[in-house]
Each structure stands twice: as C-alpha cells, then as structure tokens.
Amino acid sequence: QFQFVESGGGLVQPGGSLRLSCTASGFTSDGLHIGWFRQGPGKEREGVACISNNGRSTYYLDSVKGRFTIFRENAANTVYLQMASLKPEDTATYSCTAITRVFGCAHPFSSWGQGTQVTVSS
Asked: Is the pLDDT score of 54 beyond 80?
C-alpha cells in the first residue's frame, strides 16, 4: 500500500506563505498522479491541488487558484505545495495521496497519512 509523509505545516499570519512537502515512503512515486487534500474544522475533505505523474498537468480548487502552486521533483520522490497569500479559511490539516485522475483530484486511493497542520491566524 502506498504511503506518503507530509511536512512543512505551521502557524502563519494572513498573507503569509508556506511550502508543504509530500514524500513517498518506501516506494517510487514517479508513476503516480498525486493530490493535496485538506480538511478544515467541521468540514469535509476537499482536493486542493493535483498533479500528473509527469508534472505537465495540474488542477486547482477555485478558491486557491493564483495563490497555490503544486509541483514535483521526481528525483526527490517529492511533491510540493507552495502556498502564498494565505487566508484564515485555508486553515486545515493537509494530506497527500495518489489519485486516479488529475482533473477534480478524483478518486484518491492510497492510505491517508497523518497530514500536516496549517493554521492561518493573526
């Protein structure tokens, strides 16, 4: 079963930036489409940004377009989520997983890790 390890979260003020990392644990992820998802307090999990295995196709949730950038370094077995202009509503636990389709971040199928907490607050 595929397992990823997320890191890079923290407490940041509104307008600030963070870079999250998603690293494959014990396998090579370069053949997989990968997605970043988040779950805020009292909310359902939603797909935030997803990327194809070769990095050429991406998808973003409307509310993060222009602020978040997903990219990957297959040599490092890692997918990143660069987040800028953060808002309090971005506060959530962010997790990554393998997906079957980039558009819409559809059909996550690997195990969920512990995620990394992002808190946007002044």
From this structure: yes
